[in-house]
Design a protein that fits this description.
α5 links the parallel β10 (about 210-215) and β11 (about 240-245). The model has no long low-confidence stretch (mean pLDDT about 95). The protein is α/β, with parallel strands linked by helices and about 250 residues long. It is globular and about 55 Å long. The protein is built from five helices and eleven strands, in the order βββββαββαβαβαβαβ. It has a six-stranded antiparallel beta sheet with strand order 4-3-6-1-2-5. About 40% of the residues are buried. About 20% of the residues lie in helices and about 30% in strands. It folds into two domains: about 5-105, Beta Barrel (Elongation Factor Tu (Ef-tu), domain 3), CATH 2.40.30; about 115-245, 3-Layer(aba) Sandwich (Rossmann fold), CATH 3.40.50.80.
C-alpha cells in the first residue's frame, strides 16, 4: 500500500542491466531505504537536468514482492521520450536517480490469494504481471496461473526466456503468446490481436471465479475487460492497469 513515507523522494543507484529485447531494458537499483513492496505496485522516477529542469514518469516494479534494498524496473525505449531513452540507452552502473514508492494498492497480488490467476498483457504491460509470477514462484505457490501475452513480433517478446523457464517448472503455470504483426513459420502460438474468441479459449472458465489482471495500452485494456464481462466474468474480479500511447505512464 502507498504510505506517507513511500511518497518521499530518495536516491536510487543503478546496479545492473539486462537487455530484454532490442528496445527494452531491465534495470536493478540499490535503494538503501526501500521498505518493500507488493507485486503489481509501481514507482515514480525523477530526473533532473543540469539546468534544474525536472521530469518524472511512473514505472511498474518488475522484481518480486517482498522486502530488500534492490528493486528492478523494465523500461521500453520510447522514441521522443524524455525519460525512457536515458534509462534504456545511456544510464550506466553507478548513475543515481531519484525514486519514490512503492505506490498503489489496488492492482496487487499476494501468494495468500487463492483463486486461479489470469494475467493478460499487451506489450510492456507484462512488467507488473511478471512481478506477480516471480512472487508466486519464490513463495512456492501452486495456485493455477495463466499468462496471455500479446506482442507485436517474436523478437519483441519481453522476458521470453524467463517465461519459458516458469513453464518448465510444471507448477500450475501456463503461457499463451500471441503476435499481432506476423509470426515465424515455426510459430506455435496465436497470431492475431486478443479478441473475444481468444479469451473464451484461454481464460479459465468464469465458473472458477479467477482473479484477472490486465495491463497494457488503454485501448487494449478496455477492449479485453469489456470482452471478459460480455463472456460472463464478474467485473469485481477484473483489475486493470493502463498506460497511454507513449508507453510511459
Amino acid at each position: 500500500m502507498t504510505t506517507a513515507a513511500s511518497l518521499d523522494w530518495q536516491q536510487a543507484i543503478a546496479a545492473a542491466f539486462l537487455d530484454e529485447t532490442g528496445t527494452v531494458r531491465s534495470i536493478e537499483f540499490d535503494v538503501v531505504h526501500w521498505t518493500g513492496h507488493l507485486a503489481g505496485q509501481h514507482v515514480d522516477i525523477r530526473l533532473t537536468a543540469a539546468d534544474g529542469y525536472q521530469v518524472q514518469r511512473s514505472y511498474s516494479i518488475a522484481s518480486p514482492g517482498g522486502h530488500g534494498t534492490r528493486i528492478e524496473i523494465t523500461v521500453e525505449r520510447i522514441a521522443g521520450g524524455e525519460v525512457s531513452p536515458f534509462l534504456a540507452e545511456e544510464m550506466v552502473v553507478g548513475d543515481a536517480i531519484e525514486l519514490r514508492g512503492p505506490i498503489g494498492g489496488y492492482f496487487t497480488w499476494e501468494p495468500k490469494d487463492s483463486p486461479p490467476l489470469v494475467l493478460i498483457a499487451g506489450g510492456s504491460g507484462v512488467v507488473p504481471l511478471m512481478s506477480m509470477l516471480r512472487t508466486r514462484r519464490i513463495a512456492g505457490s501452486r495456485v493455477r496461473a495463466r499468462l496471455l501475452h500479446s506482442s507485436r513480433t517474436a523478437q519483441e517478446i519481453i522476458y521470453r526466456n524467463e517465461l519459458d523457464k516458469h513453464v518448465a517448472q510444471m507448477d500450475g503455470f501456463s503461457l499463451v503468446h500471441t503476435l499481432t504483426r506476423g509470426a515465424p513459420a515455426d510459430w506455435r502460438g496465436e497470431a492475431r490481436r486478443v479478441d473475444r474468441e481468444m479469451l473464451a479459449s484461454h481464460v479459465f472458465p468464469a465458473a472458477q471465479r479467477p482473479l484477472i489482471f490486465i495491463c497494457g495500452p488503454t485501448s487494449f485494456v478496455e477492449a479485453v475487460a469489456d470482452d471478459l464481462v460480455s463472456l460472463g466474468y464478474d467485473e469485481k474480479s477484473i483489475k486493470t492497469e493502463r498506460f497511454g500511447p507513449s508507453g510511459e505512464k
